[in-house]
């Protein structure tokens, strides 16, 4: 985005001085990272423990309203600190850069299964993309070669080279990406680098954008098809299906399927592929996240879906806990796939099965709910309907 802003400034007749370049880079970086400024207060600052992180990270700063306000603030500060940036050919591209930075951050965060609240205060519901793994190798593959050739400094280019080597090494050696997929990723990176090397300077920016959109579009198509496949297989008891593509492989997806039938509540893990002609579910390597204390499921596997294990609980017990305990009610403003277990001291461990028992989304609910947690933002609970709300 910074390269695009500099190109726009040049087309408007302005000379790119070192000061303008530094200001442009600063605006781009600060705007792109600003939504994560909620990390400053979502931890211990609000004295809420884990609840503070769960309820406030990706909260108000990850909304369109705050993104717009913060972009204008970043732009105004940049103009105030840099006389060169006040010139008309420079000021307008910097504004568009600030807006693109804050809004794209929210859009990208919205593609995975963690969720954002983009339409607050008009709508307090979570929005989940369930389409992109949080560190997707293909996004780096399509972005790094154009950025390398667009960069002018040796240090900057060296950083892009290191980033490329890191993502390729991670694909091969961290065990998250099957070896055949890692080989395809490596070959794709080499081919994309060759294409960018033979492309004119200005077209590289367009190539990077087109490549990024193409990757996200491919994953959105397969994850959407996977959710429809799960819905058809499960039927009316389906409450939610949390789908996560395998890193680097849009044809093999991991899923946690939430079902409720009367008082019977279950979380079932599965591997799903919407296009078995390309690769059947049994052929997918890697396993989905296992629900806590999983037991075998009776669901029959097919070429589309390889069912794994299920966790079951009494939905009435969860409803009673949330209705009687303000800590549990606050936690359920975040938790999308609730699971729980009693502790020896009478408290309850309530957690989101997306991240496992004892993970960052695991909250100890005290037997005595007083005092209630403060600064609860009032998000619409993801499982409000299931809880009778």
How is this structure best summarized?
This protein is α+β, with helices and mostly antiparallel strands and 389 residues long.
SSE inventory with pairings:
Elements: H1 2-11, H2 18-33, H3 50-56, H4 64-81, H5 88-109, H6 137-150, H7 154-173, H8 179-197, H9 201-234, E1 238-246, E2 249-261, E3 264-272, E4 295-296, E5 305-314, H10 315-324, H11 326-331, E6 338-342, E7 348-352, E8 362-365
Antiparallel strand pairs: 1-2, 2-3, 3-5, 4-5, 6-7, 7-8
Helix pairs in contact: 1-5, 2-4, 2-5, 4-5, 6-7, 6-8, 6-9
Structure description:
It is a single chain. The protein is of the alpha+beta class. Among the domains are: about 1-110, no CATH class; about 220-315, no CATH class. The protein is built from eleven helices and eight strands. It has helices at about 1-10, 20-35, 50-55, 65-80, 90-110, 135-150, 155-175, 180-195, 200-235, 315-325, 325-330; strands at about 240-245, 250-260, 265-270, 295, 305-315, 340, 350, 360-365. Strands 1-2-3-5-4 form a five-stranded antiparallel sheet. Helix 2 (about 20-35) packs antiparallel against helix 4 (about 65-80), helix 4 (about 65-80) packs antiparallel against helix 5 and helix 6 (about 135-150) runs antiparallel to helix 7. The model has no long low-confidence stretch (mean pLDDT about 90).
